[in-house]
# Entry
Amino acid sequence: MRAVRWTIGAVGVVAAIGAMVPAAGAQELRRYKPVTISYDVKGADDPGLTALIEKLRGALAKKDATAIREAASPQLVVIAPAIGFPPAAAPKPEKLDDKLTGPERLDKAFARLSTSGEEPKRKELDGLILLGVGEALAKGTVSRSTLVRGAFCAPAEPRFDRAQVLAVAKAAGEVPDNLVILTEETTFLEKPDTAAASAGALKPGTVVPFIEGAVEGADRKRDWYAVALPSGKRGYAKNDKSMSFEATRLCFTRDGKGEDAAWTISTIVIPSLIEQ
# Structure
């Protein structure tokens, strides 16, 4: 058995659900054609959008959840896709009470990250807001959204050929939910040992099947992870910085018209263990 590489909300929990899928180590890996995702960043440098994101970063630095709440649109919606590989059809926004204000809607979104089983108190909720917004802005990327019309989202939404990406999972004998995106150029080794030979280097944006995490290396540290490489080999690297297809995201739109128009947080995407 092994761990399925799923990131849950802002807490970044890796769920060990090995019984749900067969262990890749029991199968012979096969070669596959590497696939690289892209981003549509046209317009992401809008001065108003950039100013809002910098304002949110400043609020994070000061641990000021109130300033973040004030940036929420009165029409803010929540989208809760199932954790894993994105479905072919985009999930629909959840219905929220029309009487809720923007800050109250943002509260409702991040309250779902609580693990206490009870409605979080203000202090706990502010902590969840800071965690969630911090996770969304940590990658430092913004792009046009395919999920929300007319919006820009952080982190950037990957664009890809669905058939080509699914072919990668099939060739490696992995479930699509275990596909991840490399966020930086990574050299993989043949063994979890810094003295091992190189198994190949992959550039940022490459899609790879995640095989195993928390692998113990020759140094006795469990900070290695394994992926299936296009060569058909298993590759090891330290300090996993890959990104799941589904992630906690903040999406922004410009509300209003003319001089009164302003950028706001219009959508919050929070992956869920429960399919909506």
In short: The longest strand covers residues 207-215.
